[in-house]
Amino acid sequence: MIRSMVMICMCHLTIVSTMWAQEPTQEYETLKQFYRHQAKRVRFRLDDDGLQRLKLEDPVFTWTGLDYQKYRDTLAPNSGDVYVWTYQGRAVVAGGVLSQPTPSGREVYQEFQALIETPPRPIRSPMKWGQMWSPVGVKLRSLPTAPTPPPGDDDLSRRRRDLQMRGIAKQFTAETRSVQTGQVDALRLIPKAVFRLNATELRKADSAVIDGSLFIFTNQLGTDPELTLLIECHETDEGLVWKYAPGSLAFQEIWLKHNGRQVWHLPNYLDHPGEGNFNSSRLYDSVSIKDIESMIQQ
Predict the structure, then answer these.
(1) Is there a contact between 58 and 72 (Cβ–Cβ < 8 Å)?
(2) What single string gives the DSSP state of each residue in 101-170?
(3) Which of 191, 140, 139 is closest to 168 using CA atoms?
(4) Which segments within 115-180 are labelled E, that is strand?
(5) What helix, strand, coil percent values describe the chain, rounded to 5?
(6) Cβ atoms 19, 66 nearer than 8 A
(7) How much is the pLDDT for 22?
(8) pTM for this structure?
(9) Running DSSP on this structure, what letter comes out for residue 53?
(10) Which of 16, 85, 189, 237 is least surrounded, with the fewest CB atoms within 10 Å of its CB?
(11) CA angle, 23 then 176 then 1, to 5°
């Protein structure tokens, strides 16, 4: 999910096993520790008093790749973790901590995407377009052609809803356009959701949302996340219904289609930060592994 703030577009991520030995396993483990360390430093809340704090979940998706080596004089892979921040069982923010190699070290980024209509309060994020990330919230969209969700809290009902969500996710396709070349590439859906909403916490909160899952689309040649797709089961006056919300984890122009019909589009983030629900910030420029090890100990 890594991007250059000045020139680099997202390109296909290729995991090349023959080149993986260029970075020792120990160094990669250090990077993973650092991603978790950095994610824990981020504090989201829904209210000004800080009483409604979001909960950081364990990493939901880990990726590595060599997609930036054509732009960098290095063989070391770029990598990152994807996280979800929740409140009362519901996924509110998805994002990640990631890094890419440079000849003199690594650039470290953090990225966030608001997932639902209730966004977190603004947080400081040193991005190119300002110092604060102030998401406006995502409008959940209806799926009138989707099957009726099975009711119930038992394991069988949850398995049935899981199968429905997977089926609904497969109805979507996505594409990105390269900032640099203008080439349009199809994205690949990870068929299994990376995160399932916490049904117990949803019930305790008396939420109108009773279930849901977060899916991720990656580029075709690897596992670099480009797009999120949240699918939720809502209780309404008309009964249970499915709703969805798309989100970006990329700088490229993005399209999302449902059953072949375009339902969402975002322009190139570098030129048009878009609806403000996605944010990318470069935290460190050309830091060494020794520097990273020191930051973990702080």
Answers:
(1) no
(2) EETTEEEEEEEEEE-SSSPPPPEEEEETTEEEE----PPPEE-TTSPPPPP-SSHHHHHHHHHHHHHHHH
(3) 191
(4) 123-127, 130-133, 141-142, 172-177
(5) 20, 40, 40
(6) yes
(7) 40
(8) 0.88
(9) B
(10) 237
(11) 30
Count Cβ atoms below 10 Å from residue 105 Cβ, excluding itself.
19
Chain position carrying tokens 């900032």: 179
Amino acid at residue number 103: P
- Contact between residue 216 and residue 225 where contact means Cβ atoms under 8 Å apart: yes
- The 10s digit of each residue's pLDDT in 162-214 is 999 999 999 999 999 987 788 899 999 999 999 999 999 999 999 999 999 99
Tell me, what amino acid is at 216? I
Question: Tokens 């702080």 belong to which residue?
Answer: 298
Residue 276's φ and ψ, nearest 5 degrees, are 85, 0
In the structure encoding, which two tokens stand for residue 165, read together? 């969500």
Q: 99, 68 in Cβ contact below 8 A?
A: no
**Tokens encoding 86:** 């929740």
> Which residues, 6+ apart, have CB-to-CB distance to 28 below 8 Å?
64, 77, 79
| Closest C-alpha among 197, 213, 220, 207 to residue 163 | 213
Residue 148, Cβ density class (10 Å: 0-12 exposed, 13-18 middle, ≥19 buried): exposed
Cβ atoms of residues 46 and 87 within 8 Å = yes
Q: How far is CA 252 from the centre of its chain?
A: 14
**CA within 13 Å, CB half, 27:** 18
Q: What is the mean pLDDT of the chain?
A: 86
Q: Label the pairing between strands 61-65 and 239-248.
A: unpaired
Report angle CA 151, 154, 160 to the nearest 5 degrees: 60
